[in-house]
Design goal:
Blueprint (H helix, E strand, L loop, with lengths): L2 H6 L19 H4 L8 H80 L28 E4 L6 E6 L5 E5 L2
Antiparallel strand pairs: 1-2, 2-3
Length: 175
């Protein structure tokens, strides 16, 4: 062998057999000194331990999610109950205000009737009814505006109405 070819072969390579691929990585037996890394029993025990840990971890996570779901549904139920209570209070308030409006219209109608008996005409404006026929002209309990009053052209008939909470009207007319 020439010196040139000896330099190219340093460090000396083991002889390859024909048909075997060249493997630059040494086999495990050469790396660990010929000892095996572990027995199959330790591998099986390791897999079983990991499986058990994952199982219980998943179980605890599912339990956590279920508790969160129960808490969330409890909060939603409480919020819905509060909304229903608020709606019920609003409905009660609307009914009360509508009753006040109807009583006010009935009171104004009584004052208009007394005015008509004495004057044989209805007034141009409701303010004329105070203080002889009504002590005060009632106003809408929410908006604090006067109720709608409109006499006809010759003041022999009128229409009196109040707007109710459901956007309907409570209307009375002269006979």
């Amino acid at each position: 062998m020439s010196a040139q070819s000896r330099v190219n072969q340093y460090p000396p390579q083991p002889q390859q057999q024909v048909g075997q691929p060249r493997n630059p990585v040494s086999p495990p037996s050469q790396v660990t000194g010929g000892k095996k890394n572990g027995s199959p029993i330790f591998s099986i025990v390791g897999v079983v331990v990991v499986t058990i840990v994952l199982f219980f971890g998943g179980l605890f996570y599912l339990q956590y999610l279920q508790n969160q779901n129960i808490e969330d549904s409890g909060k939603m139920e409480e919020e819905n109950k509060e909304k229903e209570e608020l709606q019920l209070k609003q409905l009660e308030e609307n009914v009360k205000n509508d009753q006040i409006r109807k009583l006010d219209i009935t009171s104004i109608k009584g004052g208009l009737s007394e005015y008509f008996e004495k004057n044989k005409l209805y007034p141009e404006k409701l303010e004329v009814l105070t203080p002889d026929y009504l002590t005060v002209i009632p106003l809408d309990p929410v908006s604090k505006v006067p109720y709608f009053y409109e006499p006809n052209e010759d003041f022999t008939k009128y229409e009196l109405s109040a707007k109710l909470s459901d956007d309907g009207n409570f209307t009375v007319q002269s006979n």
